[in-house]
Amino acid sequence: MPEFRYHPVSKVGMKPGEIVHVGERKIDKIRIRVIDFDSTNFEEKELDSIDQCIEYKNKKTVSWINIDGLHNTGAIAKLGKDFKISPLVLEDIVNTQQSPKIEEFDNYIFIITKMIYFDDKSRDLIFEQFSFIFGENYVLTFQERVGDVFEPVRERIRTSNGRIRKRVADYLAYALIDVLVDNYFLVIDKLNAKVSEMEDDLMNDPTQKTLKQLYFVKRELLKLSRNVRPMREVAGYLHRVENPLIEERNKSFLRDLYDHTIDLNESVDMNRELVSGMIDTYISITGNKMNEIMKVLTIMASIFIPLTFIAGIYGMNFDNMPELHSKWGYFVALGVMAAVGISMVIYFWKKKWL
Amino acid sequence: MPEFRYHPVSKVGMKPGEIVHVGERKIDKIRIRVIDFDSTNFEEKELDSIDQCIEYKNKKTVSWINIDGLHNTGAIAKLGKDFKISPLVLEDIVNTQQSPKIEEFDNYIFIITKMIYFDDKSRDLIFEQFSFIFGENYVLTFQERVGDVFEPVRERIRTSNGRIRKRVADYLAYALIDVLVDNYFLVIDKLNAKVSEMEDDLMNDPTQKTLKQLYFVKRELLKLSRNVRPMREVAGYLHRVENPLIEERNKSFLRDLYDHTIDLNESVDMNRELVSGMIDTYISITGNKMNEIMKVLTIMASIFIPLTFIAGIYGMNFDNMPELHSKWGYFVALGVMAAVGISMVIYFWKKKWL
Amino acid sequence: MPEFRYHPVSKVGMKPGEIVHVGERKIDKIRIRVIDFDSTNFEEKELDSIDQCIEYKNKKTVSWINIDGLHNTGAIAKLGKDFKISPLVLEDIVNTQQSPKIEEFDNYIFIITKMIYFDDKSRDLIFEQFSFIFGENYVLTFQERVGDVFEPVRERIRTSNGRIRKRVADYLAYALIDVLVDNYFLVIDKLNAKVSEMEDDLMNDPTQKTLKQLYFVKRELLKLSRNVRPMREVAGYLHRVENPLIEERNKSFLRDLYDHTIDLNESVDMNRELVSGMIDTYISITGNKMNEIMKVLTIMASIFIPLTFIAGIYGMNFDNMPELHSKWGYFVALGVMAAVGISMVIYFWKKKWL
Amino acid sequence: MPEFRYHPVSKVGMKPGEIVHVGERKIDKIRIRVIDFDSTNFEEKELDSIDQCIEYKNKKTVSWINIDGLHNTGAIAKLGKDFKISPLVLEDIVNTQQSPKIEEFDNYIFIITKMIYFDDKSRDLIFEQFSFIFGENYVLTFQERVGDVFEPVRERIRTSNGRIRKRVADYLAYALIDVLVDNYFLVIDKLNAKVSEMEDDLMNDPTQKTLKQLYFVKRELLKLSRNVRPMREVAGYLHRVENPLIEERNKSFLRDLYDHTIDLNESVDMNRELVSGMIDTYISITGNKMNEIMKVLTIMASIFIPLTFIAGIYGMNFDNMPELHSKWGYFVALGVMAAVGISMVIYFWKKKWL
Amino acid sequence: MPEFRYHPVSKVGMKPGEIVHVGERKIDKIRIRVIDFDSTNFEEKELDSIDQCIEYKNKKTVSWINIDGLHNTGAIAKLGKDFKISPLVLEDIVNTQQSPKIEEFDNYIFIITKMIYFDDKSRDLIFEQFSFIFGENYVLTFQERVGDVFEPVRERIRTSNGRIRKRVADYLAYALIDVLVDNYFLVIDKLNAKVSEMEDDLMNDPTQKTLKQLYFVKRELLKLSRNVRPMREVAGYLHRVENPLIEERNKSFLRDLYDHTIDLNESVDMNRELVSGMIDTYISITGNKMNEIMKVLTIMASIFIPLTFIAGIYGMNFDNMPELHSKWGYFVALGVMAAVGISMVIYFWKKKWL
User: Is D286's Cβ below 8 Å from some Cβ in C?
Assistant: First the structure.
C-alpha cells in the first residue's frame, strides 16, 4: 500500500520550498519531449538538456514540454528558475504523494492530478502523479516515468487542423485533463465489471474468497474516491475562475469537464454503496448457510439419538429383563423406534425445517 | 447492469464535441415526428428526412419535433446545425449514459432526463435517456427508441382547447417533464408494492430468496436515487431561473413540479431506509432461527446422551458386574434414567427453553 | 401501508391544476361548518351548500369555514373560485398524499399539515391531511372526515373573551397549528411509552415479538419523521416571513411554535436513535443466548461422549478381552470414566463455562 | 425515563402564554433568596413573599433573585408582571421539559439551561431545568428545587472584591453559566470513568452485564448530547450578539465559555463513538467465544463418534462375526480406534483448531 | 486514557482567568531557553529566572523564548504580565486539556497545538500540549516537559543564513507549526504501518488479538482525529486572516501548511474508514470460520450417528432376533452401514460441504 504514505519521512524539519524528490525512482534518466505548434506550424522533438527549454518560454507558438522522471531535482529547479515557478510549486511537483489540487499564480496556473491505472496482474490500482503548469503559451507537464495516456492528444495535435491547433495553452491543458478524466472512466469500468462479477459470485456461491475480494475492492474504491473527489474541485475551479490565462470561449468545455468529474464521483460513490451492500448481504448469506448446516445436524442428531438410546436399553445385560424374552419384544422395540423416528420427522416437517 | 457503464470506452481520447453514439442501438431507423400547433391550428405528421425540420424553426406556431433513435449521428448533427445547437449538447444527447442535468444557452435551454420503466419480467428498472431542447417556439426531443410515456400530452394537444394550446414552448416542455415525473411515481408505486410484499415475507416466513430480493430492490433504489436526485436540481433550476424563454405565468407550475420532485426524492429515500431496516431485521430473524434450531438440538442431545451412557454401562460385558444379577437392577436402571431425563427437562424448562 | 403511496396513479398525464380527489373516500357527504366571530359577536352554524360560503368572504368578522370530506371536487372547485384560490392549491388540497408545506400567494397563505393519530388497536399511526387557507379575515380548513383535534380551539372561541377573539385570521390559523403540534406530542408520548416498554422487554426477556415490535416502531418513527420534519420548515417560514397577512404582534407566538417543532423533531430523532440502539442490542443479546445454549450442549456432549465410548469398548463381544475377566475390571472402568468426566468438568470450569 | 416526555399532555389545547407547571413537584413551598451587591455593598437574605421582589427591580445595585420551586404559578405570574416578562417566557420557565435556548427581548435576555447530575445510586443522569432572566441590574433564576451548583459563585460574591463585584448583571449571568458548564465536565468525567471501566471489562471478561451497561451508557450519552448541544448555541449566541445588556469587556469571557461548550460537545460525541465501537467489538468477541465453544464441541464429537461406532459394531450379537473369535481381534480393534482418533487429532491440529 | 479528561475537576467554580495548572506535572523545574537572532546576529542561552525575559520584549531582533514545564503558574503569570498577555490566555496555556485553537489579540496571536508521539512501548499515542504566543518580534512557546520536535528548526536558525533568519516572528511561528505538522505525518506513517500489518493478519490468520488491536487503533485514530481536525482550522485561519503580524509574503507558506493539514485529515479519515472496514471483515471471517467448524461437526455426526444406531440395534439382547442367526447377517449389516455412510457422503458432496 505505498499510496498510503502521503508524506516523506525524510522531509520532516526541512525548510519549506526545498525541492526533494519523494516517492519511488521509476526511471533512470529524465526525458524531455517538446511539442511546439500553432495553426500552421508543428514541431516535435526530444531535448537533450533542460537548458534548451528556456527558448520555448517566449515563443509565440504553443509549446508543450513534458518531463518524464522526477528524481533529477536539479534539472527541475533549473526549469523552475527559467520559467519563474515558485519553489513551493516545484516542491509539490517532485513530492509524488500530494492530493490533486489547483493553484493560481500571477503568470501561470498549477495543477496536480493523478493518472490511475488498473494493474491487471495485482488487481490493484496504481496512481502516478501528473502535474501541469500552464502559462500563456506553454504547458509544462511532469510525470513519474515514460508512458502515459496522452498519445491520442499528441496524435490530434500532429494530424488535426482543428480546434486544438488554433487555440492556446489553456485548451491544450484542458485536452490533457479531459483525456485523464476519460481514463478514469476506463478504470471505473473495470471496477464495475469486477463488482458485477462479485455480485454474481455473491448470489450463486459466495466463498471466503468473495469476501476478501469485496474487502479489496472496497479499499481500492476508497483510494480512488480520495483521488477523484479533489478532481471535481479542480475542474469546478477551472470552470468558475476568472483568469486571463483561461479564454472565455473554452468555458463550455470546462463545464463539460466539470460535469464529467461529477459523474465520476457519483459513479465511485455508487460502487462504494453497492460494495457495502454486498458485504452486508454476504454476512446474511453466511448466516443462512449456518442455519442450513445446523438444521441438517439437528435433524440427524434429534432423530437418531433417541433411537440409539432405545437400542442401548435392550443392549444391557441385566439378568432380569422380561422384554428380552418375549417372543415379539424385538419387533415391538423396532416398532417403537419407527414411531419415535416418524414423530420427529413430522415435528421437523411442521417446523418447516425439511 | 448496463446502467452502471456511464462512459463510453470508445470515446477516450476523442476530441470534445465529437458526436458519437454511446449505448445500445435500440431501433433500426430514426423516426421523426412533428406536432405543430397554436391555439387555432394543429398539425401532426411524420417527416421523411431531417432536412424538413428546419422549416419549423422560425414558424410562429409551437413545434414539437421528436426524434426516436440516436445512432444516426449524421442526422442529429444536421439538426443541430440547423437549430444552432452547441456540439457539446449534441454529444450529450447521443451519449445515453449522462446524468440528468439542465443547461442554459443563449437561445435555448437543454435538459437531459431519464424515462424509467419497471420491467415486470426481469424485475429490473430500465432507464432510457430523454433529452429536450426548447427555444422560443420549438421543442426538440430525443429518445432511444419508439414508444414513450407522452401519449397523454399528445392527446391533450390534439383535443384540448386549453392551456397547452395557448402557451408556448416552455409550457410544452413543462408538460412533458410533468408527465415524466408522474411516471416516476408509478415506478415508485411498484417498488412500494414490492417492498410491502417483502415486508410481509419478512414477518411471516423469510427465506434466502427474501434476502436476495431485498438486495436487488436495494440496488434498484440506489440506481433510482441516482437518477431522481438530479431531477430535483433540474426542476429547482427551472423554477428559480430568470430566462426570457420561461414565462412568468408558468412559474407556479414549475414550483409545483419542484415540489413533486422533492416528494419523489423523499419517497425514494424512505424506501431505502425501509429496505435497510428490513435487511437488519432479516439478519436478526436469522439469528433467532438459529437459536431455535440450536435449542432443539441441545435439548435432544442433552437429555439422551447421558441416558445412552447409562445404558452403555450396563451393556458392558465384564464378568463381575453385581448390579446385573440383582433382581431389580434393570428396573432401578430404568428409574435412574427416567430421573436424569426428567431433571434435564426441568432444567431446560426453568431456562425457558421449552 | 397506504401512507406510502404518495401519488395518484390515476393522475398520470392529467393536466396540472385538474382537481382530482386522491385517497380513500372516508365519509359520504361533505359537511360545512362555519364559526364567525369578532371580539363582540359569535356565530356557529352548519351550511347546507357550498354557495353560502361566499358571503363570509368579505365580512369584517373572522370566519372559519371548515370542510369535512374531500371527494366532492365540484364543491371545492366552486369554493376555490369564490375565494380566488389557485387551481394548483385546490389540486393539492384534494390530493391527500402531499407532504406538509407552506405557500404564499398574493391574498392568502396556503398550508398543508397532517393530523396524526395513534390507532391503539392496530398500533399504527394514522395520518390525515389537514389543509389551511387563510386570508385577511377568513380561514378555510379542509379535512378528510368529520372529527378532529380542534375542539379546544372552538371552545376557546365560544367562551373566551381573550386574545383569540380580538385578533384576526392569522392568530386563528396559528392557534390551529399550535393544537395540531401539541397533538403530535401526544403521539410521541405514546410512542415513548411503547419504546420504554420495549426497552424493559429487551433487558428482561427479549423474544422474536420484541424484534418485530422494534421493527414496526422504527417504521412508524420513519413515517412520523417524514411528516414532522416539514412542519419545522412550515413553522420556521411562518416565523420569518414578512407578509401583511401576519401581524407583527403574533411573531412571538410563531417563534414559540417554531421552538416546539424543533423539540418535536429532536424527540423523533432521539427515539429513532434509541430504537436503532435497541435493535443492535437485541442482536447482541441473541448472540449471547446462543452462546449459552451452545455451552450447555458442548458441556453435556463433551463429558458424555467419551464416557459412552469407553462403555462401548467393554460392550464389544470379542472372545479374547482380558479386562472383562479381571475381578475388578468393571470397577476400574467405572473409575476411569469418573476420572475422565471429572477432568472435563474441571476443564470447563477453568474456561469459565460453568 | 421521565426526561423523554418533553411536552405536557395536560397542556394540549391550552391557550398560549398560559402558565402551567409541567413536571414533578419537587418541593413543598417556593423559596426566594436575594443577593444584592455592588462593589461596596453586599446583602443576602431570604424573602417571605414574591411581592417584595419588585423593590429590587430598579435598584442601582445588582440583584440576584433565585426562586426554588416552580409549582406556584401564581407567584411566578406575579413576578413576571412586576418585571414585565412576556407570558410566553413564564410559560417556558414552569414547563420543565424545554430544550436549552436563548431569547432576546427588549429589556432582558432569557436563557433556559439544564443542571445535570450523575445519580450515583441509579447510575442515571438527572436533568433539572434552570432558567435565567437578566436585565440591566437584575438576574432572576428559577430552579425546580432547593440545592444547586452555584455555591462557589455565591461565595465569590460574598468574599471577593474582584471582577464579579465590579461588573453588572451580564457578568453574573456569565459566571452562573460558567459554573454550570464546568459542572457538565464533572458529569462527563464520571461517564468517562465508566467508559474506561467498561473498556477494561470488554477486553478482559465481557458478559451480558457489560452489554447492558454499554446500552445504558449509550442512552445516557444520547440524552446528554441532546442537552449539551443547544448549550453551544446558547453560548455562541451570547458571544456573538450585539446587545446593550452585554458589555463589550465581557466578550472574551463569553468566547471562552463558547470554547468550553465546543469541547464539551466534542467530548460527548467522542464518548458516543467510543461506546458504539465498544458495542461492535462486544459483538465480535461474542462471535469469537462461540467459535471457541464450537471448536471444543466439534473436536470432542468428531473424535469420539467414529470410535463409538467401531465399538458399536463389535458389540453386535450376530452369530457369525469372524473377527470376534480371532485371538488378536480385540487388540486390532483398539489399534484401529487409536489410529482413527490420532488421525482426527492431527487433522484438527493442522486446521489450527487445537 | 488520561487524554479523555478534558477539564480539570478542581477548577469547577473558580473564577475565570485564574491560572491553575491542569494536568500531570511532568518535570521538576521550569526551564527557560532563549534564541535571539536576526539576519546577522545569533544568541542562544538558558535563562535562570523569568524576570530576565522582559528584556527581549522590545528588542529589534526576533526572540524565541521557550518554557518547559507549566506547573510554576507564578512564573507564567509574571511572564504574562510582562508581555501583556490576557489572563484567559494564560489560563488556557497551563490547562493542558484544551483542543487546538487560534485566537487573535491586539498585539499578539495565540495558538494552542498538540505535539503527538507514538509511544512504541505502550503502542498508545501521547499528546503533549504546545502553545505559542507571537507578537511582532517575539515568539513565546510553552510545553509540558523538556524535549520536543523542534531541534531541526533550531539547527536551521543556528546555521542557516536563509529565509528563517531574514524574516520575523510570524515566519518562525510558521516554521514551528510546519515541523509539528510534518511530525503528525510521522505518527500517521506509524499507524499506517500498523494498519497494513493488521490487514495482513486479517487476511491470513485473524485472531482475537487482531480484533483487540483493531479496536485500539480505531480508538487512537479517534483521538488523533479529534486533535488534527482543529489544526486544519488553525492553519486555515492563519492563511486567510488579515493581520499586520502576518506578512503578506508568508501567505504562500501558510497556504502550503493549510494544504498539509487537509491531507493530514484525509489521511486520518481514510485510515478510520479502512479500520472500520477491517472490523466488518473480521466479523465476516469469524462467521465463515464458524461455518467451517460447523460443517465438520455436522458431517461427522450425520454420518456416524445413524451407523451407530444400526450397530445399536444388533447389539440388543432380545431372544428372538432372526437376523442375528442368519449366516450373512453380519455382512449384510456392514453393507447397509456402508451404503448409508456413502449416501451421506454423496449428499454432503452435492451440497458442496466437502
Answer: yes
Put simply, the answer to whether B12 touches A179 (Cβ < 8 Å) is yes
**Count of structural domains within chain A:** 2
The pLDDT confidence band at residue A10, using thresholds 50, 70 and 90, is low
DSSP state of B140: E
Indicate if D232 and D296 belong to the same structural domain: no
CATH of the domain at B45: 3.30.460.20
The residue in chain E having the minimum alpha-carbon distance to the alpha carbon of residue D176 is E13
Chain A contact set for B101 (CB, 8 A): 259
- Distance CA(D98)–CA(D227), nearest Å, equals 10
Say which amino acid occupies B10.
Answer: S
| Residue B167: C-alpha distances to residues B39, B107, B246 (Å) | 8, 18, 11
Cα within 13 Å of Cα(D141), Cβ side: 31
User: Which pLDDT does position C248 carry in this prediction?
Assistant: 86
Do E241 and E315 share a structural domain?
A: no
* C309/C328 Cα distance (integer angstroms): 19
d(CA C53, CA D117): 58
All residues of chain E having their beta carbon less than 8 Å from the beta carbon of residue A5 are 189, 192
Please calculate the CA angle B169-B174-B175 and round it to the nearest 5 degrees. 95
B9/A281 CB distance under 8 A:
no
pTM of the model: 0.81
D30 close to C200: Cβ distance less than 8 angstroms:
no
Q: Note whether B172 contacts C: Cβ–Cβ < 8 A.
A: no
**Cβ–Cβ under 8 Å, residues E157 and E37:** yes
Put simply, whether E315 touches A (Cβ < 8 Å) is yes
Give the chain C residue nearest D212 (alpha carbons). C203
Domain end marker among D284, D315, D331: D284
d(CA D214, CA D218): 6
Q: What's residue A142's pLDDT? A: 93
**Domain span including residue E332:** 289-350
Band of the pLDDT at A113, cuts 50, 70, 90?
A: very high
ipTM for this prediction:
0.76
CA angle A61/A62/A63 to nearest 5° reads 110
Across the interface, whether the CB atoms of A312 and B311 are under 8 A apart is answered: yes
Q: Are residues B116 and B170 in the same domain?
A: yes
State whether residue A328 sits within 8 Å of chain E by CB: yes
Task: Summarize pLDDT for D63-72 with one digit per residue, the tens.
Answer: 999 999 888 8
Which residue, among E88, E102, E106, E215, would best test binding to D if mutated, counting the most D CBs under 10 Å from its CB?
E215
Per-residue confidence (pLDDT) for residue E6, from 0 to 100: 41
From chain D, pick out residues whose CB is under 8 angstroms from the CB of C205: none
Cα angle E200, E206, E208; round to 5: 135
How far apart are alpha carbons B296 and B206 in whole angstroms?
Answer: 20
Tell me whether C323 touches chain D (CB under 8 Å). no
Of the partner residues E267, E291, E321, the one whose CB lies closest to the CB of residue A286:
E291
**Residue C61, C-beta contacts closer than 8 angstroms, at least 6 positions apart:** C36, C37, C38, C41, C137
- Do residues C242 and C327 share a domain? no
Among candidates C203, C267, C301 on the partner chain, residue whose Cβ is nearest the Cβ of D212: C203
Residues C217 and C326 in one domain: no
Contact (CB, 8 A) for C179 and C149: yes
In this structure, are D312 and D271 located in the same domain?
A: no
Three-class SS state of C142: strand
Residue whose C-alpha cell reads 498539509 in the numeric block: E260
Residues C141-151: pLDDT tens digits? 999 888 788 88
Q: Say yes or no for a CB contact (<8 Å) between C329 and B318.
A: yes
Query: Across residues D210-234, what is the average pLDDT?
Result: 89
CA nearest to B223, candidates B215, B235, B212: B215
Q: Closest chain A residue to E204 measured between Cα atoms? A: A212
